Amino acid sequence: MRNTFHKLRDDIENGILTGDFAPGERLDETQLAERFGVSRTPIREALMQLSAIGLIEFRPRRGALVADYGPKYVFEMFEVMAELEGMAGASAARRHTPEDKTLLLNAHLRCEEATANDDTDAYYYENEAFHHVIYAASQNSFLSEQCALLHRRLRPYRRLQLRVHNRMKASFDEHKQIIEKILSGDAQAARELLLAHVRVQGDRFSDLIASLEKIKAKATSDR
Amino acid sequence: MRNTFHKLRDDIENGILTGDFAPGERLDETQLAERFGVSRTPIREALMQLSAIGLIEFRPRRGALVADYGPKYVFEMFEVMAELEGMAGASAARRHTPEDKTLLLNAHLRCEEATANDDTDAYYYENEAFHHVIYAASQNSFLSEQCALLHRRLRPYRRLQLRVHNRMKASFDEHKQIIEKILSGDAQAARELLLAHVRVQGDRFSDLIASLEKIKAKATSDR
DNA sequence: GTCAAATATTTTGTATACAAGGTTTGCCAC
DNA sequence: GTGGCAAACCTTGTATACAAAATATTTGAC
User: Fold this and answer.
1) C-alpha distances in angstroms, A22 versus A27, A100, A153?
2) Is nucleic acid strand D under 7 Å from A4's C-beta?
3) Which of A142, A169, B97, B163 is deepest in the core (most CB within 10 A)?
4) What's the Cα-to-Cα distance from A120 to each of A126, A170, B59, B69, rounded to whole Å?
């Protein structure tokens, strides 16, 4: 069985990724301890782990803050994510097994259902599963882990663009092409399609931030 | 000022990377506490952080073990490292600043000195600095951090091939070409050169393992 | 009434204490 | 002598305690 601090780490991490703990927020150890019904010790151990992967930051004598990356940094993360996904896709095209093929087609089918039902929540979930199948199909477990990790870290930022006009349909169409190239073993094409597929999310995030900045600037000048 | 657990983390990490603590070795918290003259609490906090980045593993009720990746996993890590370095190189070719140019040429110069003196230890150090300059020149701080992190994790495995015949000279020649492509802004060429430059290390590592396996198998059959 | 300084309180960072589980050793049986 | 079981000991995992530092509050002066 897993230990308390494992569970706490996942719970707190989840809280951060779902926005339960907002970026920049201070995480009070005593409060967390009460909330989870444990002592401060395992809470601290969980926080230490989260700080090591960059999800929170320790300020000396001032405790833990939820990391608040600037927009530039988030965009950079999307850039790296795109490259890693491209790599996974290329590797999957070269090395996928027959089982991977089944899994890919199944995952795609479930995405199709979500699209047909116009169920963005379901699509969000199935989309994640689809990408994880690609990671696994790369036959590179380290790459797969890194992709999954970064994917998770970017989750709150992808959330923002969930319901952008027509994005679900566009995403689904891109998946279709990606699958085709992976299954036909066209590594280069798979790489480029995935690169673009992920990059567009970074671009959208940038656009979003830019428009927010503009609004903010306008509000300031109006004052 | 930094806290005790920061220093401990770095010390223990260093111990692992330098081979002071061997892969698979168990890290006794009490022993470490005595050794560093502190209580078990900050030791644990340091270990938690190291476990989060995958340098050690916690076995329930059995404490921390230095992670002992199989050869396949290490090879996979080199594959990802190669891709990330390629990305950094391409990005550096597109976006390096005049200051980056100076830093790159200086780093290269110091590599040249080490080569001229046939000083593999110095070359090892300067080579690392050279690669870090490329990371920074990518102008992508997240990518830079990820590269540095993975680079560090692979250090003990690169160490094995330090004195392979003529590797230093070959490496230096590759650097020369890489610099050329980065400074001339040829992103694609820079990417491919760096990809190959790092991959060769993974290949060498594989070869080494394969030959070790062969020796081991022979020893077994001779029994 | 406001600003500043001093004190009180809260909170972090480290040490110590204790309980549960795992390992080792020693003893007994075969 | 060897194998298995039991008990003692050792280590981890969590809780509590305590000291140092930062923050909040209150009081006093202008």
Assistant:
1) 10, 37, 14
2) yes
3) A142
4) 10, 13, 40, 39
Assess whether pLDDT exceeds 60 at residue B4. Answer: yes
Q: How does pLDDT run across B181-220, given as a tens digit for each residue?
A: 999 999 999 999 999 999 999 998 888 888 877 787 777 6
End-to-end CA distance of chain A: 58
Query: Cα(A32)–Cα(A42) distance, rounded to whole angstroms?
Result: 10
Of A49, A60, A146, the CB nearest to B80: A146
Q: Answer yes or no: do A143 and B45 touch at CB < 8 A.
A: no
Phi, psi of B58 (to 5 degrees): -100, 125
Q: Does residue B41 lie within 7 Å of nucleic acid chain D, judged by its CB?
A: yes
**Cα–Cα distance between B157 and B181 in angstroms, integer?**
28
Determine whether the interchain pair B143/A80 forms a contact, defined as Cβ–Cβ distance below 8 Å.
yes
- Average pLDDT for residues A146-168, to the nearest whole number? 82
- Whole-angstrom distance, CA of residue B132 vs CA of residue B113: 18
The distance of B119 to chain A (nearest Cα, Å) reads: 33
How far apart are the CA of A15 and the nearest CA of chain B, in angstroms? 18
Domains belonging to chain B, first-starting first, are: 4-66 (1.10.10.10), 71-217 (1.20.120.530)
Dist CA B137 CA A135 (whole Å): 29
What ipTM was estimated for this complex?
Answer: 0.84
Q: Å from A175 to nearest chain B CA?
A: 23
Of the candidates A80, A77, A85, the one whose C-alpha atom is nearest the C-alpha of residue A178 is: A85
**B33 CA, C12 C1': Å apart:** 21
Chain B: residue whose CA lies nearest to A10: B52
B60 touches A at CB < 8 Å:
yes
Helix%, strand%, coil% for chain B, nearest 5: 75, 5, 20
Instruction: Determine, for residues B143 and A79 on separate chains, whether the beta-carbon distance falls below 8 Å.
Output: yes
pLDDT confidence of A222, banded at 50, 70, 90? low
What single string gives the DSSP state of each residue in B139-156?
T-HHHHHHHHHHHHHHHH
Structure-token pair, residue B179:
């610099």
Q: Which residues of A touch B187 (CB under 8 A)?
A: none
Number of helices (H), then strands (E), belonging to chain A: the values are 9, 3
Q: What is the dihedral of CA A118, A124, A127, A129, to 10 degrees?
A: -130
- What pLDDT digit, counting tens, does each position of A104-126 carry? 999 999 999 999 998 888 998 99
